[in-house]
Design goal:
The strands form five sheets. The chain has a seven-stranded mixed β-sheet with strand order 13-14-15-16-18-17-19, with helices on one face. It is an alpha/beta fold and 487 residues long. It has two domains: 124 residues, Immunoglobulin-like (Sandwich); 341 residues, Alkaline phosphatase D (PhoD) (Purple Acid Phosphatase, chain A, domain 2, 4-Layer Sandwich), CATH 3.60.21. The chain contains seven helices and 19 strands. Helix 7 links the parallel strand 15 and strand 16.
Length: 487
């Protein structure tokens, strides 16, 4: 078995993506200005068994060709070709690599062939480590919140450097816990930050206003992919994406009232455009459920770990005071179908560790505007009353009670959203609702955005802060050093 030696991986990182390796043979070579281009690099994602998704984007109608091998010399490459892509998908393409040998280095190279001429682009190289068959240590990272509060790609500091910091930790995969873009956050050419320092951004037309059209949402993803750190990270680390509010607009729910920046006033029209763009640009395996638009899913990463990726945005009721005494459609957060799916999948899991990737925290008060007890609107699960489970807390109470009754052990919750780092321990001895086993929730983020916090704890499920790091001043820039990923 050929594993992924550290020295070899370091060498690849030094060489970088975009290298044409020995044996690569694109169909037709032409003058550079006639060849298709791959402006956004490559990504891999959703590793599962002997499979993984590879994604890229071309600048014209074309087919994507992917070759992979377990050796960097590509002496025995296997080839997968996508269906033809065109403007209907913004020229994005994905294929599924299958038959990957377990627990090995997988090297892949990607190019596009022009749909009309067959002329090939220059290839991009990527690599990943396939899912293990046997127990071994697993190293992964998670975080969220990219290009928020107007903090975009700053060339003066080398761009979004946290992606390079994560890459150098050699993770097996990365969970992006939501807010993969800030569709409601324009990026100005200059911002004045704490202490009067200047933050300079690269700018684009798509990031000059809030996103409303499909192409404006797509432009938010293309903006992030302009960053060299992001492209290099994407080529080396498989990703598991989930979405949250800023993929559409801040704190969106069915009750969202759009402000004067928006010409479109129907939140559902924005959601349709935003979801299509997210599905086009995420390195996610498209599922048959919900016409290929379902986001929640389970990824088994060998015998040690299963990741349960939640969607806490698509099925929620309206943001409100969150105090309903019974579970109703308006108090939904996960929604009945997803909640039942999660219970069944956790019960059936044989993995030693069950990671629940949640795009919002359980016990932190996250307001939607100004709130006070019984007044205002809540954005997340907690309602700030420290009492018995009500509103959206009822779904979490049902889940936790079920896990205790079914003796489901070793669940760990990972989340982002609140723009600071924390570790919370939940225990029934401290809780108003006590029918559950103790568990941990770990919070990371932001990746490249303003930093906030800390948020107040709600006592319903008995959380205790064991660790937290947050700025004293709200909305500090990435220059202040409060950008967090965790592993």
């Amino acid at each position: 078995m050929y594993d992924f030696p550290l020295a070899r991986r370091r060498l690849l990182q030094t060489v970088g993506a975009g290298l044409l390796l020995p044996g690569a043979a694109p169909a037709i070579i032409a003058a550079p200005n006639a060849r298709p281009r791959m402006p956004d690099g490559v990504q891999s994602g959703d590793p599962l068994g002997g499979r993984a998704v590879v994604w890229s984007r071309c600048d014209r109608p074309a087919k994507m060709v992917v070759e992979w091998d377990t050796r960097s010399g590509f002496t025995q490459p296997r080839r997968v070709v996508s269906a033809a892509v065109d403007a209907r998908s913004d020229f994005t393409a994905r294929v599924e690599l299958t038959g990957l040998p377990a627990g090995q280095a997988i090297f892949y190279r990607v190019w596009f062939e022009d749909a009309s001429t067959g002329v090939a682009s220059e290839p991009w190289m990527g690599h990943l480590r396939s899912v293990p068959l046997h127990k071994r240590d697993i190293r992964f990272v998670w975080s969220g919140d990219t290009v928020g509060q107007g903090y975009g790609i700053n060339p003066d500091i080398g761009g979004m450097r946290i992606y390079e910091a994560m890459r150098l930790r050699l993770p097996d995969f990365f969970i992006h816990s939501g807010d993969t873009i800030y569709a409601d956050g324009p990026v100005p050419a200059m911002l004045t930050t704490e202490d009067g320092r200047q933050w300079r951004n690269l700018t684009t037309e798509a990031k000059s206003k809030v996103a409303e059209t499909l192409d404006e949402y797509r432009g938010n993803y293309r903006y992030n992919l302009m960053d060299e750190n992001v492209r290099r990270f994407n080529a080396e680390v498989p990703q598991i994406w989930q979405w949250d509010d800023h993929e559409v607009t801040n704190n969106w729910s069915p009750s969202k009232q759009l402000d004067d920046r928006y010409r479109v006033k129907d939140i559902q029209k924005l959601v349709v455009n935003a979801r299509q763009a997210w599905l086009e640009y995420s390195p996610m395996r498209l599922q048959a459920a919900d016409d290929g638009r379902r986001v929640y899913r389970k990824l088994a990463y060998g015998p040690m770990l299963e990741v349960f990726v939640l969607d806490m945005r698509s099925y929620r009721g309206p943001n409100d005071a969150n105090l309903s005494a019974t579970m109703t459609d308006t108090s939904a957060f996960l929604g009945r179908t997803q909640l039942d799916w999660l219970k069944a999948q956790l019960k059936a899991s044989t993995a030693q560790w069950k990671v629940i990737a949640a795009d919002m925290p359980i016990g932190l008060g996250v307001p939607d505007g100004e709130v006070s007890p019984g007044i205002g609107r809540w954005e997340a699960i907690a309602n700030g009353d420290n009492g018995p489970a009500k509103g959206r807390e009822l779904e979490i109470a049902e889940l936790l009670s079920y896990l205790r009754a079914q003796q489901v052990r070793n669940t760990v919750w990972l989340t982002a959203d609140v723009h600071y780092a924390a570790a919370h321990h939940y225990h029934p001895d401290r809780a108003a609702f006590q029918d559950f086993e103790p568990f941990w929730e770990f919070v990371a983020g932001p990746l490249n955005a303003g930093s906030f916090g800390p948020n107040p704890l709600d006592g319903t499920f008995g959380p205790e802060v064991v660790f937290q790091k947050a700025p004293a001043q709200q909305n500090t820039s990435p220059l202040a050093g409060y950008q967090f990923s965790a592993r």
